[in-house]
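Q: I have 74 residues here and want to know how they pack in 3D. Can you give me a structure?
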Amino acid sequence: MPNGVNTRLCPFCGQNNRCMINETQPCWCVKADIPNKLIALLPTQLQQKACICLNCVNAYRKNPEGFTVNTNSC
């Protein structure tokens, strides 16, 4: 766990992000279009440390104005 960040958990909702960065196959997020404005909602120390889960990415896309870091809306 680098810098106290659990890389297996989504930094927004705390659920398993299904990250496969350390697996033999590429992670799903390699081909995903993660909005930069969503990434910018995270504190700097969490950015690029753990994958945002697909549920949170989709929740943000559906309602960017209503999505906040602590809503666990996904």
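Q: Anything worth noting?
A: The mean pLDDT is 82. The longest helix spans residues 54-62.
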